């Protein structure tokens, strides 16, 4: 699918505020509301826009402790095996295969250190995990909900 500059602006505006009306977006990109809707529908049908969601502040729901965990895996553990395993842990908010020594990097959020420790123990108990290395987050410096150009 070909994405032009207007599509990119629409995507950026939706990332900044998924509740923005088609009319509001249209004003910003010089299109009518129906034209914006057609473009959004096309982007959704093509899988460019996969959905709309609420972004919740983890601290407001009590999950104030987070860590990044490098996983070191046995033998020929596949990304699919790692992905299936980490999806079973509700504290996992992201998981990635990475280059370097580790096989995967997992982002965890928990209520407190005790909860984090319990989540780490469960994660390390996965049959393919041979070792792990954890880094606790002290503060977030930058966090962006989307990709691509700015909505400005």
UniProtKB/TrEMBL annotation:
Record's GO cellular component terms: cytosol
UniProt keyword DNA-binding, yes or no: yes
Matches recorded under InterPro entries: AsnC-type_HTH_dom (IPR000485), Dimeric_a/b-barrel (IPR011008), Tscrpt_reg_AsnC-like (IPR019888), Tscrpt_reg_AsnC/Lrp_C (IPR019887), WH-like_DNA-bd_sf (IPR036388), WH_DNA-bd_sf (IPR036390)
Pfam families: AsnC_trans_reg, HTH_AsnC-type
Example of a GO MF term: sequence-specific DNA binding
One GO BP: response to amino acid
Top-level taxonomic group: Bacteria
Annotated ranges, domain HTH asnC-type: 3-64
Source organism phylogeny: Bacteria, Bacillati, Actinomycetota, Actinomycetes, Micromonosporales
The protein, known as: AsnC family transcriptional regulator
Record carries keyword Transcription: yes
Keywords: DNA-binding, Transcription, Transcription regulation
């Amino acid at each position: 699918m070909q994405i032009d500059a207007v599509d990119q602006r629409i995507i950026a505006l939706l990332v900044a505020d998924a509740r923005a009306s088609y009319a509001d977006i249209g004003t910003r990109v010089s299109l009518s509301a129906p034209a914006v809707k057609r473009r959004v529908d096309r982007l959704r049908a093509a899988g460019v826009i996969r959905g709309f969601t609420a972004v919740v502040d983890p601290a407001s729901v009590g999950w104030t402790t987070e860590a990044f965990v490098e996983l070191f895996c046995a033998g020929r553990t596949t990304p699919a095996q790692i992905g299936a395993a980490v999806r079973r842990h509700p504290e996992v908010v992201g998981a990635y295969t990475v280059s370097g020594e580790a096989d995967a990097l997992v982002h965890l959020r928990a209520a407190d250190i005790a909860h984090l420790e319990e989540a780490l123990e469960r994660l390390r108990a996965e049959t393919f995990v041979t070792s792990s290395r954890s880094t606790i987050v002290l503060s977030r410096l930058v966090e962006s909900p989307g990709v691509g150009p700015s909505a400005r």
